[in-house]
Amino acid sequence: MDTMGTLRRTHYCGEPAESDIGHEIVVCGFTQKIRDMGNLVFIDLRDRSGIIQLAFDDGTAAALLEKAKTVRSEYVLMAKGTVRRRESVNKELKTGMVELYVTELRILSKAQTPPFEITDQSKVNEELRLKYRYLDLRRPGLQQNLILRHKIAKVARDYYFENGFLEIETPMMIKSTPEGARDYLVPSRIHNGKFYALPQSPQIYKQLLMISGYDRYFQIARCFRDEDLRADRQPEFTQIDLEMSFVDMEDILKINEGFVQRLFKEVLDVNIPLPLPRLTYKEAMERYGSDKPDTRFGMEITDLSAIVKDTEFTVFKNAVAEGGSVRAIAAKGGAAKLSRKEIDKLTEQVKGIGAKGLAYIRWVEDAPNCSFAKFISEQELADILKALGCEKGDVALIVADKNRVVLPVLGQLRLTVAKLLEIERTGYNFLWITEFPFFEWDEESGTWAAMHHPFTMPMDECLPYLESDPGSVRAKAYDLVLNGIELSSGSIRITDFELQQKMFTLLGLTKEEIEVKFGFLVDAYRYAAPPHGGAGIGLDRLAMQMCGAESLRDVLAFPKVQNCSELMSACPSEVDEKQLAELGISLIKK
Amino acid sequence: MDTMGTLRRTHYCGEPAESDIGHEIVVCGFTQKIRDMGNLVFIDLRDRSGIIQLAFDDGTAAALLEKAKTVRSEYVLMAKGTVRRRESVNKELKTGMVELYVTELRILSKAQTPPFEITDQSKVNEELRLKYRYLDLRRPGLQQNLILRHKIAKVARDYYFENGFLEIETPMMIKSTPEGARDYLVPSRIHNGKFYALPQSPQIYKQLLMISGYDRYFQIARCFRDEDLRADRQPEFTQIDLEMSFVDMEDILKINEGFVQRLFKEVLDVNIPLPLPRLTYKEAMERYGSDKPDTRFGMEITDLSAIVKDTEFTVFKNAVAEGGSVRAIAAKGGAAKLSRKEIDKLTEQVKGIGAKGLAYIRWVEDAPNCSFAKFISEQELADILKALGCEKGDVALIVADKNRVVLPVLGQLRLTVAKLLEIERTGYNFLWITEFPFFEWDEESGTWAAMHHPFTMPMDECLPYLESDPGSVRAKAYDLVLNGIELSSGSIRITDFELQQKMFTLLGLTKEEIEVKFGFLVDAYRYAAPPHGGAGIGLDRLAMQMCGAESLRDVLAFPKVQNCSELMSACPSEVDEKQLAELGISLIKK
């Protein structure tokens, strides 16, 4: 094999253009493909920037032509030559107008035949691709995703630093707390029987940094959650994490909106108009049945309670009478695709998520076919159709129950129906959700729990009702939603030691529990804290949205699969008994 | 307590200048101190940028003056007022020409009396300060260190990104390997009995990224090593990590030198001339007895072997005859401080690190006092003094042994003596160390071990001697040294699969061991790899040097102490039996 010697790259493969014609350049990269046509040889040479065609022809020295013929897929080459106009322009390539007429070729490394072809079109199964991740990572699509991810992080730092944020590293081996999701633990060798935890987020530390006067904190932080298996989650994920002092909610929304606008302009050249739309939690639930609605399409929820409250149909009447409601979505033009059979499937689906059933009106023929026709009057049916704006060709799907069932069920149904009807969803619909309830009633334990986290500041106007009407207390918490995905979550924190104690009491925590769960953080607030708040923005999800990727695995260099293992290195793995003994632990025999 | 309402900061405390006189501004921050002189009140308000004096006087509304009098140390305030010239200029403060004549004061948060005064002069013990780290972090000195650290990371990203590097995140939960230092382990809940490891560095992943064609990789990466206790080490530390393709050693040194120059100029306004000086490993050892010499002072090692090889003094003669050497350092003007007693202490010290003894010549009186006078001739003594350039007032310290004892012992001695003599060491002396030996003979196992790591490329001219003379093989490895501290370490990697196998064989590894230790990484090289190499730069040490800090704890927000515990949160800590059971582990009862 050859060495580079003193030869050095002058251009990336994707760079040569018509303006380079006649110039001598040096490129290097991986062999995408080779076409040997006897006295003509073409090699497509690939690097992270693109592909250039290397050309050898009857003018090429015989030894060089012979050498070119020995090249195989994925060989690493360095080539010097002159840029010339291509005979047949390749419009698929950035460099398609030109080619490199090679005068010197160095084969720097030879490759075995790879287990699969390295193209974005390769249909090989993902498991094999993950096992050979280092080869899959050669795919231009994946490379562009990771380059885009790099740009996101760069714009984030540029933007927040320009706005006075300091990047401060917080520890990765921290104290385990019984709060929140499950911690990953790290046994201590020096302190046998004790453990560190990997951070679920830098939450505690960024609040402390505000107490310490750092004013504006930023970090792109790795976070860890040992959660039960769910589709498209990674045990470690990355958060653009920030916190700022001497601000209220509006200040934080404004600075983060500015980031969104700058990011999309710089990276995708997409204009995001500001201010971003907002919905309160209540509005979002009532209109979309979700606190992270996809607003790229309508199909909003309509409340039919007023129309049906006195109907003979007891399912509807009772739901309203018992404080619940009857609500519906209208699938415009959905009658053809939403056959009876399809609606039966939807019924099963909604039953699976807590509904008792699904009523419907399907209007295919001249008259609407209504699943509860015999129980309601013609006038009521007409009123329902009118309220929903339903016409021939449409389907109405109706749920009656308590609100906490009706709304999320219709929210889910809305997404399922949009998918079934293939409703076009394009663009980037950002949305702030504000005024989250502070408390969430936990049926199981019969106590109030904090919906965001217990350090979240209640809204000023709710402070008088903390004890008298906890259910009505809204928080200075805000989520940023993009196309139905929760991108960011944040809040203003409680900085008043006394108020914090009161909130803990309302959450049913004893002094001991407060001490165990939040000990030093709560104490820190005794020494004064500026008003502060912050947010965490999910970098992986953001990258996924901006890349148009289908999975988090497509925006991470070395992802784990659903059971949290990593296929390339076969991790996690067994370790020596000796190592465990040093850590003071042993395996439980099953 | 007050709220901010709609009032917002217009200036940081360190900003108001004479040009602001007459302007109305708003500042906020922490109360450094309050001086109540009856009808005059002054408050020093502090934020991360500096301190501004808030002034209240007989023109101040009575209620406002009374309010100002209630302020205590560390209260968080927001103040609106007019900038005016100070009566008595404070030259200690950036803002010392002006003060803020307050018209509106908001007390945003009250503080308990802190357990220690928050100033850089505070002499309270470090343990207490670490327990209340959130208060200690309010100290301006510590704040400036973390701001400087932020700047280092920012310049690093700016520089390397401008040079085409991509920041790519590598996983933190990886496969444990038996190579290198001890891994921190993370038990798996889903795969009981198996473990992840926290990365000691992203080494494997960055090499894979080169194989995958990412061309130039950069990351500021957290690394973890469960090492035995040593002074000033942290179990987690941060590395500026990079790797680049289609380069040889010179290219990497050049790009990293460029970073050093840019960094010191931008952050400290210090000019570092390029190219940086270089020494080969051999030169560094022979001249300074160290592969990370502090070159801010001379006191180089002199080889006396030629002079003493035929002396009657058998200690010297035999050392030379047995292939070792007799070498010395000269402590110019050291005779006064290096008393006999002091030299005895030095003798004990060198015995502690492997020397058999320490010979000396101490020249205080008219004639030199030589510890081995009776064994050598006058001529020999004169020759020794001449070789060392010793005169009256100087001390020569001489060690005779094998070279691998003589050199490091004198290297250590040189540093100790420099400290004793309080030799001035200022400035920033950078130095590349190159041509490290590839192999290191491991006496214990009687095998060759890799000095850097087994993926390091031997120098081209050494390839013919791999088998015949392993001891002479030098590697394309390079360390960057600053003032005697190893800042960075790196190498060109072996990209030839066959050569890699040969090196493994020379290192005595069996096929099985290769598979267990390096399995998928070695396999990856079968599919071709561009020539590549890289380096890791210790961010913590770099920050420590640039801050002039005495300890890593002064450049980290939340450091751990020597036994790897963190005093603020009392971490590591015990966890629930239930958690352990889920992980399939139990504690070994002692």
From TrEMBL, chains A, B:
Span list, region Aspartate: 203-206
Binding site for ATP: 225-227, 234, 486, 538-541
Superkingdom in the source lineage: Bacteria
Gene Ontology molecular function: aspartate-tRNA ligase activity; ATP binding; catalytic activity, acting on a protein; nucleic acid binding; transferase activity
GO CC terms in record: cytoplasm
The enzyme's E.C. designation: 6.1.1.12
Location within or outside the cell: Cytoplasm
Signal sequence, renumbered to the chain: none
UniProt entry tagged with the keyword Secreted: no
Protein keywords: Aminoacyl-tRNA synthetase, ATP-binding, Cytoplasm, Ligase, Nucleotide-binding, Protein biosynthesis
Cited InterPro entries: Aa-tRNA-synt_II (IPR004364), aa-tRNA-synth_II (IPR006195), aa-tRNA-synth_II/BPL/LPL (IPR045864), Asp-tRNA-ligase_1 (IPR004524), Asp-tRNA-ligase_1_N (IPR047089), Asp/Asn-tRNA-synth_IIb (IPR002312), AspRS_core (IPR047090), GAD-like_sf (IPR004115)
Pfam families, per the entry: GAD, tRNA-synt_2, tRNA_anti-codon
An example Gene Ontology biological process: aspartyl-tRNA aminoacylation
Chief site of localization: cytoplasm
Segments forming domain Aminoacyl-transfer RNA synthetases class-II family profile: 148-559
Protein role: Catalyzes the attachment of L-aspartate to tRNA(Asp) in a two-step reaction: L-aspartate is first activated by ATP to form Asp-AMP and then transferred to the acceptor end of tRNA(Asp).
Summary of subunit composition and partner proteins: Homodimer.
Protein name: Aspartate--tRNA ligase
Gene field: aspS
